[in-house]
Amino acid sequence: MHTVVCIKQVPDSAQIRVHPVHNTIMRQGVPTIINPYDLFALEAALTLRDKLGGTVTVLCMGPPMAEDSLRKALTFGADRAVLLTDRYFAGSDTLATSFALSSAIAKIGETFGPVDIVFTGKQTIDGDTAQVGPGIAKRLDLNQLTYVSRIAGIDADTREITVERRAEGGVQVLKTVLPVLITMLEGTNEIRRGSLADALRAARAGVTTWNAADAGITELLKCGLRGSPTVVKKVFAPSARTEKAVLIETDGRNGAQMADALIAAILDRNPALDADLRRLSAGF
Amino acid sequence: MSDAPRQQAPAAGRAGMKKELPDRFKSYKHVWVFIEYEHGHIHPVSLELLGEGRKLADKLQVELAGVLIGGDVDELGEAARACFEHGADLVYRVADPVLAHYRNEPYTKALTDLVNTYKPEIVLLGATTLGRDLAGSVATTLLTGLTADCTELAIDDERSLAATRPTFGGSLLCTIHTLNFRPQMATIRPRVMAMPPAVPGRSGRIVDHGLDMTELDIITKVLQFIPDRDTDKAQLAYADVVVAGGLGLKSAENFQLVKDLAGVLGADYGGSRPLVQKGWITADRQIGQTGKTIRPKLYIAAGISGAIQHRVGVEGADLIVAINTDPKAPIFDFAQIGIVANAVELLPALTAAFRQRLSVHRLAS
């Protein structure tokens, strides 16, 4: 079983600050991490390999520094790491990104053996689009299984795979045939800590670095800004509100008095809520 | 997964480029809303999008269409009526037994064929699991632009769709255009747009379209659908009253105070992202940019500081009430009513006061 896990190096969004004057992202000093959702995908791939054998190749498109994320993935136990990096990819939107990644996955298949499953996280925490996975599936003509919460069964001989996927209002149990693309939901597994042996191996292991030509990409017009149908026209900070909350007086009041004052303020502001609350509390 | 998708960063070089729509796209007209119809129900986000689509279509002076894909022609006819009452001029209907349950392959074919046949300039879908799964495939098949998870839509002076979405976890907003390709596609989160009032009896026309696919053509099979039990279902997005807690509650045990108040109010409950990370609540109860967007009549935030990610998810609430010990907490900048107090101490008092008030009312009635 050969699986490819697509990961992205992202800024740790919890630590991002916006420049107060220019409304730009202040990247300096912001640590980068592997997109947290991708770790669930990586773990799913490693679990499958431990069970069925085979190899796990981790693929990351990004600037040269994204090699750090790939090394991290190797310490978790991935067998091989490929960094796809080229200035032609700069400014890629999701359509251009899925083109570059799908080309690299095809090349990985040619170079290291046919790919059975492509894994990604359900989305990234910086772009939040959830579009790149489906884009890769469509370009490689793979069966697409998004928001997968569990791989219920896989048969290496018949090449059938059964998964549970989160759908609106319930769980869909789907059966399809390899090769497939799977986007993994968060919280689906416990991310392993790499072993000491994995860490030592990772330190020695090389990360394979490919540019566009190495990945077999000749249609550079489909890459980067030129290959991106979407155009960002404007980036701006959410408008600051001038209104401040009306604060309930707390001095010299006990909890019950504060609660009464709060309820009075709520109903004073919106008297119609009184009827809504009575209706709801009665269970209607 | 890319280096820096431009759904996050401005593209100075391209942004100023003159729009030259290729000739083959010039006949693309009309605004479409994909209507999510499953298990006999239209997802409310689709009707919300008809309200928004109506505004865009009126601005462009074109027709608004709903797209209904499913297994039963009569059921879809019933659903079409709801579309007309919520603003659609016409409905494109693709009815075929293989479309009875959502599967990516046949739905992608159905929607792609419709677009190629009837050529809409704008296609909107809900940013649900289904909508995102389908939109990504269709946009890639059509090789057009798709903007994810929008919170605002407008038509600019050049008749182009301006789609605004939060980026970097909600700390910034960006406006995205698809200048040289058609259709312009976008997904929009549930509850961001207001539900348009229904106009009973308003009608329109139905255009039927075939699928040209059989079960044998489709590799993926649906073995089972396990609906969530009612008790598991968080109805946060559509709840009239929501009580939520944050790290100010200090412990998982104290989260019970939020549930207690919600119980007395007949409200739903949720929390901020750190609570999901700490395992105090499940992910489907997370409120904010990476969780649910809510539009309740009353929102009570207890011990939530109000990071921008949270703010994005609650701004549509009619009335936001904040309880926080820190008077400088950002939540007081977007709440209408605030109280500088410890939520762990105040919540029980608030629950008791509401219980008393509401039970008196009940006795009186």
Automatic annotation (TrEMBL), chain A:
Signal peptide: none annotated. The keyword Transport applies. SMART domains: ETF (SM00893). Keywords: Electron transport, Transport. PROSITE patterns: ETF_BETA. Pfam families: ETF (PF01012). Gene3D superfamilies: HUPs. Residues 22-219 form the Electron transfer flavoprotein alpha/beta-subunit N-terminal domain. GO terms for molecular function: electron transfer activity. It comes from the Bacteria. Belongs to the ETF beta-subunit/FixA family. May play a role in a redox process involved in nitrogen fixation. FixA and FixB form a heterodimer. This is Protein FixA. It comes from Oleomonas cavernae.
UniProtKB/TrEMBL annotation, chain B:
Its cofactor is FAD. Residues 31-222 form the Electron transfer flavoprotein alpha/beta-subunit N-terminal domain. Keywords: Electron transport, FAD, Flavoprotein, Transport. FAD binds at residues 272-273, 286-290, 303-310, 324. GO terms for biological process: fatty acid beta-oxidation using acyl-CoA dehydrogenase. GO terms for molecular function: electron transfer activity; flavin adenine dinucleotide binding. Binds 1 FAD per dimer. Transmembrane segments: none annotated. It holds the Pfam family ETF. Belongs to the ETF alpha-subunit/FixB family. This is Electron transfer flavoprotein subunit alpha/FixB family protein.
